[in-house]
């Protein structure tokens, strides 16, 4: 158990130079996750969810090659989402920490109090991925239950989770951190280092131990230790979500996070666009509830986002699809492990 007078000592550690991923590392890692991807020179198109293609990593600017959107749409992609140059898309934001002097004084008083309180009970340290493979799934399931999310995920199936998390062992640009309460792992997070960024991945805590503020202590410890490294200038807590989550945003902002402007573009397949309308949702949601309940949350969030943001159908994509309606496409259905 830790006491407040040990607070400064928690971070009295060497600030190492991080192992950072390059494109070859990213492609190897994405391939290991058994998701479809399309490699480019400085980024990757990744299909993390059925029907959605995202540029990765999100802080790098992506550009669609000529005819690329049409090819993706013809393969059944419903929407393409990517970070673009300023003025080329809609204004959005990313939750980041970038103050190199980050410390307790950077927090809102409520979060500062929670961090101090949590340090009485919580010990944060680097952990190996084998420990997460054994004990992380139960924590994930607790998180999913707390948020009333479907348990149909790689994070919530024991066997799939073990395969997923063990894939990280071979990549030095991923680090794992755990929170221990009374000697047992009760919360964890991954840290992905790329360029001068650190991305927080899966900051999860078991519901029955939230009263000890493990997430506050975990996030504070990782952010502070990362920003003390000379080659890390930004720690990211993710992009603007498609569905507003006021409580999550409040947590991030009171933990000293800020909203950094970023330009994002969303291209919607013109054939799929009616299914995301209010009229289409009346038919699609019941069908998904019956056939693919694990997709309902993503579908609802994205359709609400399109309505809220008034995302238009891309005229160029519509025209290209019309012109190509009677032509065959020279498409390669990429499988995990293949490169375009």
In short:
With 340 residues, the chain is an alpha+beta fold. It has helices at residues 23-32, 68-74, 109-118, 129-146, 158-166, 214-227, 246-254, 278-291, 296-309, 315-323, and strands spanning 37-39, 44-49, 52-56, 79-83, 90-97, 122-126, 174-181, 184-194, 197-205, 234-239, 258-268.
Give a quick set of tags describing it:
340 residues; 10 helices; 34% helix; Aminopeptidase; 2 domains; disordered N terminus; alpha+beta; 23% strand; disordered C terminus
Explained architecture:
The chain has ten helices and eleven strands. It has an eleven-stranded mixed β-sheet, with helices on both faces. The chain has 340 residues and is of the alpha+beta class. α4 crosses α5 (158-166) and α8 (278-291) runs antiparallel to α9. It is globular and about 55 Å long. α6 links the parallel β9 (197-205) and β10. The chain folds into two domains: 23-89 and 264-323, no CATH class; 94-263, Gcn5-related N-acetyltransferase (GNAT) (Aminopeptidase, 3-Layer(aba) Sandwich), CATH 3.40.630.30.
Architecture blueprint of SSEs:
Elements: H1 23-32, E1 37-39, E2 44-49, E3 52-56, H2 68-74, E4 79-83, E5 90-97, H3 109-118, E6 122-126, H4 129-146, H5 158-166, E7 174-181, E8 184-194, E9 197-205, H6 214-227, E10 234-239, H7 246-254, E11 258-268, H8 278-291, H9 296-309, H10 315-323
């Amino acid at each position: 158990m830790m006491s407040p007078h040990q607070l400064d000592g928690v971070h009295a550690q060497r600030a190492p130079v991080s192992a950072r991923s390059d494109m070859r590392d990213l492609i190897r890692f994405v391939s290991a996750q058994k998701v479809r991807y399309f490699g480019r020179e400085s980024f990757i198109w990744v299909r993390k969810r059925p029907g959605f293609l995202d540029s990765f990593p999100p802080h790098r600017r992506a550009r669609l090659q000529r005819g690329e959107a049409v090819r993706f749409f013809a393969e059944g992609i419903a929407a393409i989402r990517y970070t673009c140059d300023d003025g080329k898309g809609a204004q959005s934001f990313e939750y980041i920490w970038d103050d190199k002097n980050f410390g307790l004084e950077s927090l809102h008083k409520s979060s500062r109090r929670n961090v101090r309180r949590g340090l009485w009970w919580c010990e944060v340290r680097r952990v190996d991925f084998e420990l997460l493979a054994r004990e992380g799934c139960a924590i994930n399931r607790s998180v999913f239950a707390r948020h009333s999310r479907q348990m149909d995920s790689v994070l919530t199936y024991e066997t799939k989770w073990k395969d997923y998390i063990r894939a990280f062992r071979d990549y030095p640009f991923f680090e794992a951190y755990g929170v221990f309460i009374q000697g047992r792992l009760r919360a964890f997070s991954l840290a992905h280092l790329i360029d001068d960024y650190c991305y927080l991945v899966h900051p999860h805590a078991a519901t029955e131990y939230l009263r000890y503020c493990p997430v506050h202590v975990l996030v504070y410890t990782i952010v502070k230790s990362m920003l003390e490294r000379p080659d890390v200038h930004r720690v990211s807590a993710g992009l603007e979500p498609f569905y507003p989550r006021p409580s999550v945003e409040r947590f991030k902002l009171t933990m000293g996070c800020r909203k950094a402007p970023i330009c994002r573009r969303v291209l919607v397949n013109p054939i799929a666009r009616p299914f995301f309308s209010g009229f289409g949702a009346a038919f699609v949601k019941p069908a998904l509830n019956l056939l693919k309940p694990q997709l309902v949350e993503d579908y609802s969030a994205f359709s609400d986002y399109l309505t809220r943001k008034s995302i238009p159908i891309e005229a160029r994509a519509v025209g290209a699809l019309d012109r190509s309606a009677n032509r065959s496409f020279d498409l390669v259905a990429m499988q995990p492990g293949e490169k375009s």
